[in-house]
Specification:
Layout lengths: L1 H14 L9 H11 L3 E2 L5 E2 L20 H11 L5 H10 L1 E5 L16 E5 L3
Antiparallel strand pairs: 1-2, 3-4
């Protein structure tokens, strides 16, 4: 009788095994992507970590006003292990929507008319 009780107890312990979702590859990939670290895609392609890229070529030259240290600080504020929705909220706080001041007639009127423009602020 003691051996049967031992076997049933072992079976119950095996059935109650908890899943550890942190160790799943898909969740490790997702976390690495959110934190800006390098990760391997499901197809085996290595995605490099997020770095500060080259400055844009717009006429305003906004990125020339920031030092390299400021750029790194902005990247670190965005990629500090926050969940995706908090990152999106942070970015939305840096944008301001405003209505279009003047609509111009086009030759071929299309449904692509925007209802608002966006201003972006880094600091």
């Amino acid at each position: 009788m003691g051996q049967i009780a031992l076997m049933t107890r072992l079976l119950l312990e095996a059935a109650e095994k908890k899943r550890n979702e942190k160790d799943w590859k898909v969740n490790q990939r997702k976390l690495a992507r959110q934190e800006g670290r390098e990760y391997m895609t499901r197809k085996g392609v290595m995605v490099p970590r997020k770095t500060v890229g080259p400055a844009c070529t717009c006429k305003r030259k906004c990125m020339d006003l920031l030092s390299d240290q400021d750029k790194v600080e902005i990247m670190s504020r965005l990629y500090t292990g926050k969940p995706k929705n908090e990152q999106d909220t942070f970015l939305q706080g840096l944008m301001e929507a405003r209505s279009i001041k003047r609509h111009r007639k086009r030759i071929a009127e299309s449904a692509n008319c925007r209802s608002s423009s966006f201003d972006y602020f880094i600091m």
